[in-house]
């Protein structure tokens, strides 16, 4: 199979954003005198959007919707101010993106992070040729729902089976499978290799440039 497009997850795949996410959420929790968490714990909270993160971080097992909404609003405000303070592309990512572009491989981003934040981080840290760059707009559309991933393929003019979807969580692997794309995991993100393999990853990259072995193999 000759692959013509790659869709990347953002957090834990292209950029290491866990410190900014954790710092922002901890500010929200401290404001309410709730327990805070370390960076490693936050890695288990991310992957399904900011609302899911907030619910996971709140101390109640089933927090009231009013509390979730209030903390979500605060989190969005705080995080939007600090989302590019400590966040950086992983080593080898920028080189990989340039190589893909040089081969005329279409490169897009699809994240469960809120859309405006996804676009802000990508615009600040990643090349301009990534298109489209999409985050979550409607909760029901979040990964592993394949709806938006399939819309990306339609927009850029490729078939799902000609597309590689790359991410660091089981959610990314599942959306790839649901969309009939090649599911590829990364070893440097927020989940371990075992969880990616168990979810159905066809391959798990050890370094970003390992992707070129898949792209170049016909």
Describe this structure in words.
- This protein folds into 2 domains: 5-16 and 88-216, HAD superfamily/HAD-like (Rossmann fold, 3-Layer(aba) Sandwich), CATH 3.40.50; 18-82, Putative phosphatase, domain 2 (DNA polymerase, domain 1), CATH 1.10.150.
- The protein is 46% helix and 16% strand.
- The chain has helices at 18-31, 39-45, 50-57, 65-82, 93-102, 115-125, 147-156, 170-178, 193-199, 211-216; strands at 5-8, 15-16, 88-89, 106-114, 133-136, 163-167, 182-186, 203-205.
- Strands 5-4-1-6-7-8 form a 6-stranded parallel β-sheet, with helices on both faces. A two-stranded antiparallel sheet has the order 2-3.
- β6 (163-167), α8 and β7 form a beta-alpha-beta unit.
- The model has no long low-confidence stretch (mean pLDDT 95).
Explain the layout of strands and helices.
Layout lengths: L4 E4 L6 E2 L1 H14 L7 H7 L4 H8 L7 H18 L5 E2 L3 H10 L3 E9 H11 L7 E4 L10 H10 L6 E5 L2 H9 L3 E5 L6 H7 L3 E3 L5 H6 L2
Parallel strand pairs: 1-4, 1-6, 4-5, 6-7, 7-8
Antiparallel strand pairs: 2-3
């Amino acid at each position: 199979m000759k692959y013509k497009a790659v869709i990347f997850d953002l957090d834990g795949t292209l950029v290491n954003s866990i410190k900014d996410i954790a710092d922002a959420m901890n500010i929200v929790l401290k404001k309410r005198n709730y327990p805070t968490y370390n960076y490693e714990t936050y890695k288990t909270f991310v992957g399904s959007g900011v609302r899911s993160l907030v619910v996971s971080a709140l101390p109640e097992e089933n927090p009231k919707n009013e509390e979730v909404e209030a903390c979500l609003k605060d989190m969005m405000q705080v995080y939007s101010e600090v989302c590019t303070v400590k966040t950086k592309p992983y080593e080898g990512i920028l080189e990989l993106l340039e190589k893909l572009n040089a081969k005329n491989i279409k490169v897009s981003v699809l994240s469960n992070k809120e859309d405006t934040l996804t676009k802000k981080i990508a615009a600040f840290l990643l090349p301009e040729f990534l298109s489209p760059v999409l985050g979550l707009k409607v909760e029901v559309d979040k990964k592993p729902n394949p709806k938006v991933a399939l819309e990306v393929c339609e927009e850029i003019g490729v078939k799902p089976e000609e597309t590689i979807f790359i991410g660091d969580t089981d959610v990314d692997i599942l959306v790839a499978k649901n969309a009939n794309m090649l599911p590829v995991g990364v070893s440097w993100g927020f989940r371990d290799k075992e969880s990616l393999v168990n979810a159905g990853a066809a391959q798990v990259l050890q370094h970003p440039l390992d992707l070129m072995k898949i792209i170049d193999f016909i």
